[in-house]
Prior knowledge:
Blueprint: H1 4-22, E1 29-34, E2 39-44, H2 47-50, H3 57-65, E3 74-78, H4 84-92, E4 97-100, H5 110-115, E5 119-122, H6 126-138, H7 140-146
Parallel strand pairs: 3-4, 4-5
Antiparallel strand pairs: 1-2, 1-3
Amino acid sequence: MMTHGHIALLEIAIAEARLGLVEGGIPIGAALFDREGKLLGRGHNRRVQENDPAMHAETDAFRKAGRQQSYRDKIMVTTLAPCWYCSGLVRQFRIGAVVVGESVNFSGGLDWLRENGVEVIDLANQECINMLGAYIRKNPAVWHEDIGEE
């Protein structure tokens, strides 16, 4: 179900995705919130910018949030369905919910997250779909590297 609250959280991740695009990277953004909507950390995919294969948007936001006593009541908001690497992060730390901007360009581990009790909300946001879709068309090799495909 799409709510205004989820859309407001997604706007933070979209701002991060735009920043990544301006920096010459892959336009994927993420943010980690508590259940009350307090922003804990935000980030974007910086694999290209930092030559770091592990710097996905979700990991950037997670790291910037710092240590938390528990993640069960946290919400990972991301402009794109998390890849297997980032889905693993959500499961490892038992993040309770994932709000996804889109899963059209890439569905990642959404079904696996759902099967393992993570609440997944897919907003099918057109800006997210368009931004990444355009990037993929212009940069297919970088995109395939990002998701581990050849």
